[in-house]
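Hi V.,

You were right to ask for the full record rather than a summary. Here it is.
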Amino acid sequence: NKLTGWPEKSETGELVLSGHSKAYVVLDGLACRADDAESSQHPLAKLHAVWSLDIMYGQATCASAKWVSWAAMKSSVKFRVFYRPSSPTGSEGDRLARKAKEAGLDKKNLKVVAMTGTTHCALPGQQLPSLLATGEPAAISQKEVGALEAESYPYQQYDSTPRGKTAPAPA
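Predicted structure:
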């Protein structure tokens, strides 16, 4: 385009979709429609990875079955799903981990990671740096986990990092 300096048509390299919390609306929607023709067209044809950060809320919609089916259909895509077992995402996250293992996808492209000792809002900050650098989950040291558990404020069930502070970065 002459006015902006941007090319009329751009090329998409490897596409990574990442979502936290309410992003389940978008990612579950994509999982539900994984067999639609549109899911294999540009830019989704370039899908390389999907990173789900504490979004497994879908007990009523059986999100785990959709995600296992999506991962099976898109065997070249790396799915990394993080959930917190003692939270509203716990039941469906546990179910997804079990179904991924039963389907043999846990050894292929669907890695489901139960995150204990972390908070909902701290999880992205702990995992995204490693995911961006390597595509794989970060290891969280016991010291960092302990520091997060020690913090508290009135909304502790959602996040124990006090407002105005940031969670510790992964080691």
